[in-house]
Structure formats: C-alpha cells, structure tokens
C-alpha cells in the first residue's frame, strides 16, 4: 500500500472540548501533526489579544487546526463519500489543506502582518513548498502533492468544492472558530447546529450547496457569526491591546533603523525590521519570543518602547472613544498637535483604528468585493442564493458596520492635569472627573 | 469610607466559561487584579505540560485564580453572611487570599520546584509581603493586612475556617480546578453539583461543615477528583514531557556550574542555577522565557541540552513502560549500564518517575500524613467524619495508588538497532518490532 | 408575623434542568404549589401537540410555571431590591402572578379555546377569584390580594412594571419558555444569555428598561424567539395534529348537538358542547381525560369521529401542502367539491390553516396591534426604542411571516386511487407516485 | 430487494436532546415506530411517579426506546460492522429488539406489575408474537423474525452478544436511561463518556468486551448508575407516591371482588381485577386512563379509595420514616394495632416498603443471583473481570444497600391529635410538634 493511503493500525483520538473527539486514521495526517511546523502552532494564540478581555480565550491555533481538520473529515467521510459528483480522490488533499490552512500564521497575526507587511497565507504556502518537515511528509504522498495542497490554500485548486470546504462563506474554518472561540471565551453566542449543517451539505459538480431543509441552521450560523464579530472579535479593549502591540513593533523597527543600540540585541526581529525574511526566520518566531522581548524592553532606555512594552505586559491599556477622523478632520489635527504639546508622540499615543481594517467579511453577494454566495438547493433541485430565501440573512446582507475609535493613555493626561489635557478630553467628549 | 470597604461604582464582571460570570464589587479586588504580579499569572499555565496530551488545556493560572475568588465570594456573600458563628470581618481577607493563593507559582511549577528546590507557597508569601504592587494595594487596607493574607496562605491564620475555604479537602481551589481543568481538557469527569455543595456548607465555630443532605454531591466531587487525577493529572504522556523538562533544566544548571559557555547567556536562569534568587528575579521568570530559551538551546553545542530542548519544543517525547526500580533493583542497575554502553547518559535518558511525587493528597483522615477530614453535620446537629457516612468514600479512603514508570527515548534505541538495544527492550518487556 | 411575609424555616429547592434550582422561601408560594389547581398543571403539556414532532417535548405547564416564578424571583430579589423606583411591597404580588399566570390553561390549550370559544386568561382570573384552594391561600395574605393578582393577569394592575415582568415583549414567561422548550425539544435555538439580561434590567418609575450594555443579549433573545417560532412552534406536523384534534372536538360537539348516542356518554365534555361551563367543570378537564375519550371514540359508530380519534392516538396525521385559499379561491372551492365527491367531508378532511391564527406576536412597535416596545437605557440615561439601536432587530421588526397550508389525508386519496384523487393532487401540486 | 434490507430514500432523523439526533435508515424500523403499539409508549412515563419529586421527569418510554435503538445502531453500524467475529446478519434483529424492548410496559409499570402479578417482559413477547401491528411488520421480514426478536427479549437468542447489547450490566438500555433520566430530572449525576465506551466495545466470539483503555469510562458509568439509584430512582417521595398508587389499585380490586358498586364502572380494569387479561385489554391500558379513573374515584363512596385517589392526583403524599419491621417486629405489630384504633386500616395507611423490591441490580459477579460480569480485554488479549482491574468498582461490588421505610399519613394523625397519635409518633421517633 502506498503512503498516502496507509491507515494507522489503531485509530488515534484527541479529546477535544468542542467536537468531543478528533479522529485520525491516516498515517499522513498523524505524521503532519508531529512535524515541528505544526507543533509551532501551539505557541500562537488563536485570538491574539482577546484573552486580555475574555480571560478564557487562551487557546492556540493548534487547537483550532485540529478542529477544522475534524469537521472536513466528517464532511468528506460521513456526508460526501459515495455521493454522485464526489470523487473520493480529493479526500486526502482536502484533509491536509484543512489541517494545515493556518500554518503560516505568525505571532499575534494581524498586528504582525500590519507592521511588517506580511501575508500569512503566502507563508503557509512557503511552508508547504519549502524545506520543512511538513513538505517532507507531503512529498512522500507524491512529488506534486505539496503543490496541490498549496493550490487549495491559494484558492487555485481545480476543484472549487475542495477550496470552498476550507475557505468560503460557510466553511470548516469558520464553523470551527465560531464554536471554539465561543467555548473558550464562555460567551453564549457561537452556538449553532453544526451537525445539521453538515448533514445537509451536498456536493454538486462545481460547488457545495445546502439543502433547503437546513436553511434555518445556516441562518443561525450567520447570526452567531455576526454576534461573535460584534461582541468578541471587535471588542475595543482587545483592539486597544492590539494598537499598543503594533506600536511596540513599529517603535522597535523605527529605533533599529535609526541605529539605536538595544541593551539586548533584538536578534529574532532583525530580519523583520530589515524586511528581508527567510522562511526559517519566519518560522522561528512565536509568541513566547515576543513576550520575552516585551519584558526585556521594559528596561530599555527609549521611553516610548519602555512604556508601551510595560503597558502590554502588565495590561495597562489605552482608553478609547468613538471618533471618526474622516468626519472631524480639523479636530483630529488639532488633537494631534495638542498631544505633541503634552510631549506625547501622537504616532504612538493617539491612534485611530477602525474595525474594517480587520477581516470583517460579512455576507455581501454581488458587490465589488463580492464573495461567492451560499447556495441553497431547493426541493426541485434548483439553486437559490441564500438571502433570497431567508429574511433574516437578507436583513444583514451587505450591511457593513464600520466603527471608528481613537485610543490614547487617558491616565497620562490626568497626570499632566493641565489645561491642554482638559481641552483634549473636552474635544473628545470625555468627562473630566476621575472615576472608578 | 476607608479603602478596604470601598465598592466600585459599577460592579465589574468577567465572562468566565466555568462560572459564567465572575463578579467584582470591591475596589481592593479590582486593584489586585490590575497588579503586574497578578497579570503575570497569565503567562503560567494551570496544568503545565498537560496541554501536550489534552490540547485544550492551555489555560493559565490567572484564569483559575479568578475562579477560586468567585467561589469563595459566593460562599461568603451568599451562604455564610448573616449566619451564626460567621463574622463578616473575615470577608476581605478571605477574598484576597482566594484570589492570590497561586501568586508564587513559577513556570511549569512542579518541574521547576523539583529542580531548583523551591516552594511556591513560600514565594506567594514573599510577594504578599515584599516590595510589590500587590503588597502596596494590600497595605492600603491596613498595615498588617498583607501579613493576614500571608497567614492564610501559610495556614497560620487564627480563624481555621478562612484557611479551610482556600485549602482543605473540599476547598474552593479544588472545586475550581476540577471543573476548570475538565472544561478545558474536554473530559467528561470533573462535573459535580458545586451549587449544591456551596448551599450545604455551614460555618461552625471552628470549622466549615457539610450538611448531611449534601453528602451525595460531596461523594460525586470526590469521585470526580479521583478520576481527574488518574485520567488527566497523572497522564504518562504529560509526565514524559515533565521528565524531559526537568532534565533540560538540570542539564543547563549542570553545564553552567561546570563552566560551559552558552551561545546565548542564560541570564534569567543564572540566579536559579546558583540558588541565590531575589524576589524580582523569581517574578521575572515566566513560561515565555522558558520557551524562548528552549528554542535557543536547540542550537547549543552540548548534545544533550540540544536534544532535550528540541524534544520538548517539538513534542518528541520519551516512551514509557511500567517498571518499579525498588522491586527490580538488579535489572534497574543493569539497564543503567546498558544505556551508558549505548552512549546515552541514564541521568537524562532513562528516568524513573512515580506519581506519588506529585501532590496526590487523597482522603486519609487519621494517618501520619493526616489531613483534616471533611465533617458532615447530621440532622441532630452532631458531626461525623465523611467516610463513616459514605460507603463510596470509605472505599477510596486511604488507598494510595502509586505508579512507577521509566521513561526513555525508544526511537533512539531503534536507530542504534544493535544487540544492546534489543536486550534493553527485552528486559523492559517492550516488543521490539517497530509499529505505528 | 403575618402570613404574607412568613418564611419557610428551611428554604425548599426544586431541581430544575433549565434554571438548575428553583428556590422557595415564602410560605405563600409553597402553599400555592401544593394546591390542586396548581398540581393540575402537571396534566397539561406545555407545548400541546409538539411532542408528536419533537418527542422530547413532553413537559408540562407545571414545569414552566415554576420556571417563570424563579426568573421573576431572581429579578425582584437579586436585581430590583434596594434600587431607586422599586417598592418591595410589590414583591409578593409579582411572585404570585408569575407562578399562577398559566393556571387557566385547558388541555391542548389553543385547540380547545378555538373550538369552544374560551379564553384561558379569563379562566386564570376565575380560578384566582373563585371557590378554589388557590383563592383560599391568597385570601390568607389579605382579602383583596386575590384581586391584585388577577389584576396583573388582566394587565390592569396599577404598577405597569409588575405587569411587564409577567407579560411584555421581554418577560419572564417568554424567557422561561424559550429556554425550556429548547431544552426539552433538544433544538440548538433558544439559547441566550438570560443571566446577562436579568442583570441589565432596571426599574424606572413606569417601566422596566434594559441598560444599553445588554443590547446584544437582547438581540440574541429575539433571534432565539424568531427561530423557535419558525422551527418549533409552527412546525407543520404539529399543526397537522392540532387540525385533527380540533376536528375531533368539533365532530363530537356536532354529534352531541345532533342527538347522536355515544357508546360511552361524553360526560366531562357535555358542559363544553353546550357552552355552559362551570369553573369546577373547567378545572376537572385535563389531557388524561381527552386521551381516554379519544381511545374510547375509536370504537364509536360515527366513521369520522372514529377515524379522526384513531389518527390522533396512533399518530396517523394529515399530509400538508402550501396553499392559500385567498389567492386561489376557485381552486379551493373546486377542491372542496372534489373531496365531497370522494366521500370525504372537507370540513374534517380538507382543512386550511394559517400560522397567524396562533399567537405570533412579533416585535412591531407602533402598529395597529402595537405592543409596548422594549426600551433601552442609554449611557446618558435617556431611553431609546430597541430597534433604533439594533440593526438586527430592526430587520425583523414588523415582518409578519404568514404561512398558509391545507391539510388532508393523502393516503386515503391513494386508496381511492381514481381520477378524482389524481385531479386533487394535481391541483395541489403534489406528485402522484407513492414514495417513502 | 427484500423488505428487511430496504432503506428509506431519505434518512429520517428525530431531534433528541440526549443523543442529538436519532437516525433511521431502515424501512422496518420506520414502520415499527409508526405502529400503534409503539406509539402507545408515548402514554407511559419512563420514570413512573418520579415526576412528583423531580418535576422535569415527565418523559415517556417512547423517548427512551428511540434512544436505546440509536445507541445499538451506533454500536452495530459504527463499531462492530466489519470486525472479526461479528456477523452483520445479526444487525436487524438487534436493532428491532433494542427499539421494542420496553413494548410490554404497562402504566406505572412497577406498581402495576406488583398489584396484578404481571411481568412486562412477557407482555413484550406477547406483543411481538400476537395479533398486533408490530407483529405484522416483523412478519414481513421473515416468518420466524418476530420469534427471533422475542428470543432476544427472553434472553434465549443463540448469539449472546445480541442479548448483551440490550440487557447486561453495560447495555444500551442502561446507557440510555442513565443519561436521559439525568437530563430530564436535571441532576448532575448520570454523565459519563458514552462515546468512549462505545468506541472500546469489541465483539468476541461469545461476548462483548471492553478494551482496557476504556476502563475509566466504565468506572464513571458505574458510579453514575450508583448515584442515580440512590438519588433519583429510590427517592422516598417518589416511593411514597408509588405506595399510594399500589394501594389505590389494591383497594379498587378488593372492592370489585367484594361486589362493591362503582359510580362509574371500572371497565378497563375489570380484566385485571379478575386476573384474566387478553392482550388487547393489556395494550388498551395507559396512564391517561389511570389518571382519568383516579379523578373519577375521588367521587366514590368508599372512603379509602376516595382519599387515596385524591392524594395521588393532588400530590398529598404519605410521610415516611426509617423503620425495619424485621428488626422491630413487636413495635411493628403494636403500630399496626394503634393505626387500627385510630380507624386507619394499616393495609392502606401504614405501609412498609424496601428499595430491594425494586430492580436494584448492582454489580455482583459470582453470587447466587449472579450476573454476567463485565469483561475487560487486556492489552495482551486476555480477559479480566472488571472489578479485578478497578479499585473503585471493587469497592461497590456486591454491596447491597437495602433500605426500609414505613409510609403513613402524618397529617391525619395530627388531626386526630390524641394520645394514640402521640404514641405512634413516639414509637416511630418522629418529633410531634407541627412544623413547616
């Protein structure tokens, strides 16, 4: 028997709080889990800075990746197998792509990508195709197998159904993270009847569709997603931490490029500061190292780096207030000037952030930035786009909820406690008495 | 109003997956949570290496500490307040001790304490009494208040009921960790009816007792505890990781003391290697730093340090087999010699471990290492020791389940693949064909 | 101490799967639960015929009534007590009204009310005010106390907040039944964060409002409600059973009035057939008696009564198909004629039903049949109507989803299997081949 | 294709709160569920009088029967199929026996069997083999198929593994009812990891065994079972209701045999009173009819029948106290005499009951009333009896917990309130002051 179809003598199971058990029968999958690139995902949190608001959210991408694999395995093995239009030859590439789809995520992914202009999906493909343990395992299946998996990640794989199971408006990725993030944060949103959704998924020749009888489970899934974004993923306290995180990295890069002498050489970051990163350097970085340096940087001479690092490590975050610079350009510029007058560099201490910078990919079929819609298979076999058949989904379709805030160290203003501070707070509409 | 009795204008709530919400009304508690010593607990995992078996178990001691606080808060505010024998003056010291009881835990606590001969409870007291943010907050309540909290941790506080809520056979610490660890690992043990147990707890003059009507909930709690120890806390794969962890630290200490030159100076560890640790040095260490160094040490020249570090980071753990050196002394010595012959230092590569090294404090009233028993308040007001009234508890009382295993790198033996390896495996009773 | 404020020596608790425990401290409440009129609610199912689709839904109104009481108790004792604008004198009347609000429900409430032109709320008031055990208990509180409770039920009580806790767009009744019905049916809808909703409820002088910070929990509650209506309460199979149930009762009444001689005298129904019902006769009826007679009526000579009774008891329900007589008047009349030709009386065998006959009271502030809206208390203390502040709620506000179906015995048509049957099915758009 | 192997075109699913979904693919199973004998199980509660203590426990045997079927289906289709030693020809008979195993239960099964000397398993077999819809469906599979199913129920089927899945110390029946009864009552016991137990079940040639790796899940299951018996099934309030129920039936039978003239002829009971019951008469009886007659009997002339019926319907139960007549024979006889002096017939008003009358079949391999033990398959393939390998199970093996109580109407004694009553209560050790 060839490697790709070798089964483990005994099925391996992982106890999982969300899916109860994760089942591994394929030797390939078992070997991939054992690679150091996959084990690295244990050192990267699934939700970045969210744990600073929802203390339960300390789970890693390792956790989530197993979950996505398990959902896809159930779809392929329990639902699709044996059906018309489904060729089981796609099974292994689909399982591997599911397991490995997040492989290229760096520490505090969004912040990191922002500051250093990176793209985690591109790194996922590099890890699949480069000199890595993961690549060596995939090669054993077939010489072009790593490339096949990479094509799925790049959304260029010939069979669009394989892509859509991993990445679409209703994919295994989202179904896992909504449930998993709800479980670990403890919020009551994020529940939907996944078992029912899986059971009504059907492969057609060129797409995966949902049988009409499952439409309400899909509605519920979309409502869950909406609530998780509004309540958890876009929580302003978590964004406040992310603003600080970005500014630390930005400041360190700025200092390095200016020739600043660090007390402890920022060795693992230098390639990033110079924007010439090898794959090995990328993989080497994880959240442990960031935390270690943030602790070291609390002793740096540079006041800004020191202050921001201490804020992040000890959770002394910025205050926030609704403020849209596009609508209040003059006020915004005046505030920047006032911060400068107080001796606070507005680049680091008066930061505008909008949630639409984050991947808020709500359901908008038919727009410029259009996404492949979810199709419902009606009783007569014809297809309809979901929002045509669901008043609830229609209600939220295309409604982007953009939110603008500014973040700043409110308590530093109070410490200065002079007229400038009061002016700043007055322009921002913040009450000036100190309170708990 | 004085600081100790100041309430927050608006109650703060933390969403918690185990207790649903954690409620904070006291300014003291809120300020303590904000200290950097308490925030540091976010960087220390509750279950050490367990996440390498149960991938969901990535939660921190921060998480657990809030949970213990919340349970104690419910007992004091909802159950004890207003009852005879309970003086509400004990409330604040009880809440603070609950919140802060794990403050002195280091990274991978048990391994660390083992190798460097430390005692986390002693560090908890040092943090309470030393030059720390926590101490500063507690001082604001009253000059002797830090000492009161430290007395509870040291089990020397005058009121034994306060101690027993934090540390006894049925305390808030255990009630939280059983449920929390079960939640995050996803195992089905660990459930018991805590709400009922709380409701039947009663303060007497010198102890906290359980009303007889709650005896079955207590039975269930003890069975949960038993199962969690056997199934989760003593899981041999987790212990295998802990063996490696200890050996890494042991090896680094050994090398340092021998004058070995590290490629990267092990700055944060030096005080530990020399066993002259300041409080600041102790607090500075967290699991991020350990992981960072384990990654660096994968590039060290010393083969043993390099190999063990790589094993831990990439989860290439030791194999294990039941083996009790006490019963098979000659075999044990012969095996040590054989490992040496293979070029594997048995100190690091053939390790005996027993679960009784771990704090397996099962219910044994009346023995040398006797613990204060759980008392049941009968309907007529008299007290009985729990196991007298419960056949189930009696059945497990005093039954220590000691387990002996040896841990070793099975795959290295296979690589050598000579007669010595076969002999080793034959003595250990391990089948010699390689299999998945 | 007077009766109304007497506390039980030991709190009584009921184990409840939805709220975990139901707590009773007031002697009045304990005594009310013990009355035979309240115990009677054990013999009336909460969801009528729904158990014929969702087999788990066998729970009674007794169950639900305790749940509503418990929610109100928590609001009043844990949230409202001690707040400005709340007079705790309203506590007891609120608790009693919560417990007793469903007292007047008859067996298979909606069907029964339909056929015999009854109003269960009017019967609730009669039981409160008439010669009953419940009235005797309430009288002991104060002579006018039964009337006070009845005023709450009638929505005529002076304090509108008391009414709104029992009956409004976000009341304890709905919060209990959504969660309870979801629990017993096993559907994944019906979950929302009630604990949070309760915690953000605030009494103002004339209404109960929701603090803005809880708006997303309320959104989630409204979405749950929507899904429960569409998925569970309006399930067509359950309605099919209800159609048959109504027709049995209708037929029996018709036969009785025509002078038909029943094999077994329908003693408990005669008052209903004659529409001259005493309170004692009303109370005497429960679902056991209906089931007993439906079994007896399977042996009656009248073919229609016999057939319909057998259908209900043995779950041989009608088929259904979307059909709106208002839009297809000619077809409808033709179909009625065709059923007659087949020897099937269309009154009983070809039945139009629409879900808007059921109490589908979706959120429509400001319409003719307008309901008191849910008010949100903004941070500045001002009030806003909920849908102004929630895009999701706005999306579903005022959207009535009316659904028209006809119900008929498809398998009887097949048995006849002639041209008329084929014509009927063709007009209805039903495929004529028999299939599983 | 023959009937027995015909699959439904579309799988049918039932939403189930315990197993999430119940899956039906076989036409035979679908047809069996539709028979009137199976639908009758909706009118018989799973837990008899338990709902009078745990108000949530209103679920029927229909509910449970589907659950047992689903567990067996998972074992056979997901675990056993394709394994050595398992012949899939046993599949259909196993599924049918699982679904139908409770078919012969009467209303309030244990009470009924007690009073009328019936055996529900014998009735199950009669329904399978007699002139019933169930028999007609089974006949369609093969003429001897009804008999095969009946053999499983009678524990006489040739393949002992089939029997053991339905009825053994660890069978689908128990696994369903423990979880289901825990779910509906809301108690926190009754949880165990069924998914794991199923996955480690293995068919050997003559028995079903448990792989050693699942031993802790089995331990947990046995502890759950223990707790459910002690806490739920043997709850004295539920037994008090059962005592009254038995006495009502006993009294009615006694009166009928004495020639008493009932106001309403007890038609459905006469065959039972005379102990000459046809199958049709047996099937016709359900809990609706019992409740209907209990209501009617509240108006009978016989004081005892009237009082007991009213007690049951309105939940005015007997008081209870620990008392073992075997140990206190003289006191017992004196008490009987004293009750008579008070005018209370001790046959109906002073009743001794012991839980060992109930099917308390704890795990006692090797005793007279020995049960087939649970076998554990060790890693080397050999078998061990469970308690040899589990200290916990050993601890509870063979420990019968017999409990003796007497039940009597305490409040009637108080009403008499003379010296005899005080004497009775004094002998019974009951405090004589009235209290809440």
Automatic annotation (TrEMBL), chains A, B, C, D:
GO terms for molecular function: dGTPase activity. SMART domains: HDc (SM00471). Residues 61-178 form the HD domain. GO terms for biological process: dGTP catabolic process. It holds the Pfam family HD. It comes from the Bacteria. Transmembrane segments: none annotated. CDD domains: HDc (cd00077). Gene3D superfamilies: Hypothetical protein af1432. This is HD domain-containing protein. It comes from Lysinibacillus alkalisoli.
């Amino acid at each position: 028997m060839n490697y790709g179809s070798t089964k483990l003598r005994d099925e391996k199971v992982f106890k999982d709080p969300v899916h109860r058990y994760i089942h591994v029968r394929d030797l390939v999958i078992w070997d991939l889990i054992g690679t150091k690139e996959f084990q690295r995902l244990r050192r990267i949190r699934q939700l970045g800075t969210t744990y600073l608001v929802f203390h339960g959210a300390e789970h890693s991408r390792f956790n989530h990746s197993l979950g996505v694999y398990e959902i896809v395995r159930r779809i392929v093995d329990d639902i699709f197998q044996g059906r018309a239009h489904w060729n089981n030859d796609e099974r292994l590439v689909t399982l591997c792509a599911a397991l490995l789809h997040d492989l290229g995520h760096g520490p505090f992914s969004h912040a990191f990508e922002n500051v250093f202009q990176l793209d985690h999906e591109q790194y996922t493909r590099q890890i699949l195709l480069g000199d890595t343990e993961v690549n060596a395992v995939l090669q054993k299946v077939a010489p072009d197998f790593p490339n096949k998996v990479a094509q799925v990640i790049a959304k260029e794989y010939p069979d669009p159904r394989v892509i859509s199971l991993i990445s679409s408006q209703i994919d295994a990725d989202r179904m896992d993270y909504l449930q998993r993030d709800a479980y670990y944060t403890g919020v009551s949103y994020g529940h939907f009847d996944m078992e029912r959704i899986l059971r009504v998924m059907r492969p057609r020749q060129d797409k995966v569709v949902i049988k009409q009888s499952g439409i309400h489970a899909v509605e519920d899934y979309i409502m869950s997603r909406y609530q998780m974004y509004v309540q958890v993923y876009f929580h302003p306290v978590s964004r406040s931490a992310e603003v600080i995180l970005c500014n630390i990295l930005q400041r360190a890069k700025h200092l390095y490029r200016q020739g600043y002498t660090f007390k402890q050489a920022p060795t693992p970051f230098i390639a990033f500061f110079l924007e010439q990163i090898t794959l090995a350097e990328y993989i080497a970085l994880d959240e442990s190292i960031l935390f270690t340096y943030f602790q070291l940087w609390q002793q740096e001479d540079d006041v800004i780096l020191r202050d921001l690092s201490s804020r992040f490590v000890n959770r002394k975050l910025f205050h926030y207030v609704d403020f849209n610079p596009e609508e209040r350009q003059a006020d915004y510029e005046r505030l920047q000037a006032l911060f400068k007058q107080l001796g606070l560099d507005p680049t680091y201490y008066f930061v505008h952030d909008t949630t639409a910078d984050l991947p808020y990919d709500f359901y908008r079929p038919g727009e410029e930035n259009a996404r492949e819609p979810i199709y419902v298979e009606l009783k007569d076999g014809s297809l309809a786009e979901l929002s045509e058949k669901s008043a609830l989904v229609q209600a939220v379709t295309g409604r982007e909820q953009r939110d603008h805030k500014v973040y700043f160290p409110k308590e530093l203003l109070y410490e200065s406690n002079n007229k400038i501070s009061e002016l700043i707070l007055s322009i921002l509409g913040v009450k000036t008495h100190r309170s708990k």
